[in-house]
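FAQ

Q: What does a record look like?
A: Structure on top, sequence underneath. For example:
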């Protein structure tokens, strides 16, 4: 029904505080970099002038050098040339002759302006220029027509379940479907047919049929057969969010009771058919965990939470409250859950591990039953009066008789976490939601297996296999997971000592490299899951692992501002340091290889674009370069993905399809966008897709472009989108004419453009 305990508001404040601290840190870093650049420029200007003369003299000899060179994407000036020597030259690195003048931005409402000067375009963010050169095949830049792509996305599969911080969010429907939620999507998963349907009318994280939007939280009532929304309750009424909801039972769901997330935790009762409020009262300043109607009398309502159980009576629109009396029994810190017995008594589960039986008319404890070590997280009634309880610390599920005599028990594996909620399938078979975001299916006799699994902390690393329908993810939970897009399942999962932030498959498909938070990276064999190679570059987190198209090189982007280049041999199992790209003045965010494997394009945290090459060239020559992949968020071909007034951090990731027809974008506002490719003009239109409840950290197309994968940050959700429509043709031939088609099944809400 709602977030566990009461840390949501505190967590929200911590997130906001951290965001402010991050912004301050970025501003300080940008200022320090600017001052350092000015000093270096003054010191190196005479030397650079001499080098320019020397460069003109040596000319052709430079083409024989084996060093990697870089150039800033700015107006052509010799002073912006940067170099990287091989490991056997000058100890493997060379300081830049002048730090490049990239582009930094602060969140602003100012419009992004562009100016045309000959063969270049300057995009201004807060008055600072990013210069991009127009490719030779574009003759009339001003006449380019930007349209949404003909391709569309359709939600195909949702990986994950939100059990870490929510409760009472797993139910079994007569249709044979388990219904649960993660991010902004309510999933209806048929446990036998292994199919999914999705309710997608929510626009922010779901707690339970709740639009958890801090500005306008509300409750959606919808038909589980047709997925049609029947009623939207309380829009603009609830404060901060909705903590718990319940339908009345005695009158077949005529009423809905709601606890909001305000300081007073307002309790309100609503007419479901009319959508009108019937009654409202302040419940308590303490956290409230559950609310429900008495199944035989809709005028009686129970709430429980931190150190309390309240019995409410509703009469002619007015509430009367009676507090449960603990008497001789120790008052627990938290009453986590409750159910009604067949006799009408109330059974509560608490943080002391006890089940308390409350008299239906005395509001006093009649009996205390020791149930679990640690908290009782959930209670579930069975037909015939039996009871199921789920434990936290002991991870046990216990079956009790109607008179609370224990009958059966089992313990779920530690890797799945504690029992969060239980749903009865047929009296024998059960569904179990766990605190490590898994849904288990099984019986006391046969044990339990996971039918839904997911990450349990923020995710950033995402890579798709070059030839198979599988993809790999990694994140702050230290898990590395390999998923199958056809069978919609987890193939394997391993746990590392440090958390992973980026990954990349070797083009031969047999190994995958994973970059970690400490500067260490490892290469895993896909079949054996064994580490076949590992190395460490610096002591800061890694952000990119990218193989060259032929697999002969690996580029490792780091937060220490360097790109490390490795020779790759023995089918991706042996790595030898080739060089280090020294030139960025901030951490590496994205990089791509050219199709011939001789050049690298990279972006950095201060919104700089650099090109690296084996031969010394100028930036102008990079305008016609063809790139094997396109994930850099700054560049001429993707200039149109940026909104006016964008902060440079508004776009987290970008991925061009292998067909080079479309580009997918992951933004900081929970959206996935689909643009035509190229999209080199500002205000390029796109199709926008909801589903994530947190910043979208990464996107990636499968090898055949049949699907797009997107991953959320804090929502721990992976969405698999089917790519619909589209056609053939080279991207360079489509700059002036792209038509849009609309395709949407499986979701009642189409994409917005």
């Amino acid at each position: 029904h709602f977030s566990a305990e009461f840390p949501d508001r505190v967590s929200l404040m911590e997130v906001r505080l951290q965001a402010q601290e991050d912004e301050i840190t970025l501003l300080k870093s940008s200022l320090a970099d600017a001052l350092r650049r000015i000093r270096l420029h003054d010191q190196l200007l005479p030397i650079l002038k001499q080098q320019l003369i020397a460069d003109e003299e040596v000319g052709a000899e430079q083409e024989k050098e084996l060093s990697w060179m870089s150039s800033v994407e700015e107006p052509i000036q010799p002073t912006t040339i940067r170099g990287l020597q091989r490991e056997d030259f000058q100890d493997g690195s060379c300081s830049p002759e002048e730090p490049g003048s990239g582009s930094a931005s602060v969140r602003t409402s100012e419009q992004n302006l562009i100016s045309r000067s000959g063969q270049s375009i300057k995009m201004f963010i807060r008055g600072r220029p990013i210069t991009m050169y127009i490719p030779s095949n574009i003759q009339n830049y001003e006449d380019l027509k930007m349209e949404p792509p003909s391709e569309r996305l359709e939600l195909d599969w949702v990986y994950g379940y939100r059990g870490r911080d929510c409760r009472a969010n797993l139910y079994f429907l007569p249709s044979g479907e388990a219904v649960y939620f993660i991010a902004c999507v309510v999933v209806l998963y048929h446990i036998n047919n292994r199919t999914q349907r999705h309710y997608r009318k929510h626009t922010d994280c779901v707690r339970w049929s709740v639009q958890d939007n801090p500005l306008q939280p509300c409750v959606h009532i919808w038909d589980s057969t047709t997925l049609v929304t029947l009623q939207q309750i309380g829009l603009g009424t609830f404060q901060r969010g909705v903590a718990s909801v319940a339908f009345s039972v005695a009158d077949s769901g005529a009423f809905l009771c709601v606890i909001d997330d305000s300081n007073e935790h307002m309790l309100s009762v609503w007419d479901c058919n009319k959508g009108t409020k019937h009654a409202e009262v302040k419940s308590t300043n303490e956290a409230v965990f559950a609310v429900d109607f008495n199944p035989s009398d809709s005028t009686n309502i129970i709430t429980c939470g931190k150190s309390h159980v309240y019995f409410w009576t509703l009469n002619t629109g007015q509430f009367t409250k009676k507090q449960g009396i603990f008497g001789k029994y120790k008052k627990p810190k938290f009453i986590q859950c409750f159910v009604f017995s067949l006799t009408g008594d109330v059974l509560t589960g608490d943080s002391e591990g006890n089940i308390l039986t409350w008299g239906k008319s005395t509001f006093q404890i009649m009996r205390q039953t020791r149930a679990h070590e640690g908290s009782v997280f959930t209670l579930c009634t069975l037909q015939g009066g039996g009871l199921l309880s789920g434990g936290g610390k002991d991870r046990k599920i216990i079956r009790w008789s109607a008179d609370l005599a224990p009958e059966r028990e089992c313990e779920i594996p530690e890797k799945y976490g504690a029992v969060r909620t239980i749903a009865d399938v047929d009296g024998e078979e059960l569904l179990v939601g766990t605190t490590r975001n898994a849904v288990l299916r099984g019986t006391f006799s046969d044990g339990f297996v996971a039918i839904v699994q997911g990450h349990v902390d923020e995710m950033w690393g995402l890579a798709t296999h070059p030839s198979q329908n599988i993809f790999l993810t990694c994140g702050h939970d230290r898990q590395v997971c390999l998923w199958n897009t056809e069978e919609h399942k987890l193939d394997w999962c391993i746990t590392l000592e440090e958390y992973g932030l980026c990954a990349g498959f070797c083009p031969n498909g047999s190994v995958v490299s994973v970059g970690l938070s400490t500067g260490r990276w490892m290469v895993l064999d896909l079949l054996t899951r064994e580490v076949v190679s590992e190395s460490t570059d610096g002591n800061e987190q890694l952000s990119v692992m990218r193989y060259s198209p032929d697999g002969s090189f690996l580029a490792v982007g780091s937060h220490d501002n360097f790109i490390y280049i490795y020779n790759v041999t023995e089918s991706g199992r042996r790595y030898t340091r080739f060089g280090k790209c020294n030139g960025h003045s901030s951490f590496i965010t994205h990089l791509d290889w050219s199709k011939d494997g001789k050049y690298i394009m990279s972006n950095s945290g201060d919104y700089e674009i650099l090109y690296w090459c084996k031969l010394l060239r100028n930036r102008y020559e990079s305008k016609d370069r063809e790139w094997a992949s396109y994930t850099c968020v700054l560049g001429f071909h993707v200039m149109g993905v940026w909104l006016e007034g964008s902060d440079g951090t508004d776009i987290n990731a970008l991925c061009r399809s292998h067909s080079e027809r479309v580009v997918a974008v992951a933004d900081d506002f929970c959206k996935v966008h689909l643009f035509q490719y190229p999209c080199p003009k500002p205000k390029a239109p796109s199709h926008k897709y909801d589903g994530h409840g947190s910043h979208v950290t990464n996107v990636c197309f499968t090898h055949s472009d049949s699907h797009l994968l997107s991953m959320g940050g804090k929502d721990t959700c992976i969405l698999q989108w089917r790519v619909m429509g589209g056609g053939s043709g080279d991207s360079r031939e489509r700059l002036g004419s792209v038509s849009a088609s609309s395709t949407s099944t499986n979701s009642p809400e189409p994409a917005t453009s």
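Q: Is there anything notable about this one?
A: The CA atoms of residues 455 and 716 lie 6 Å apart.
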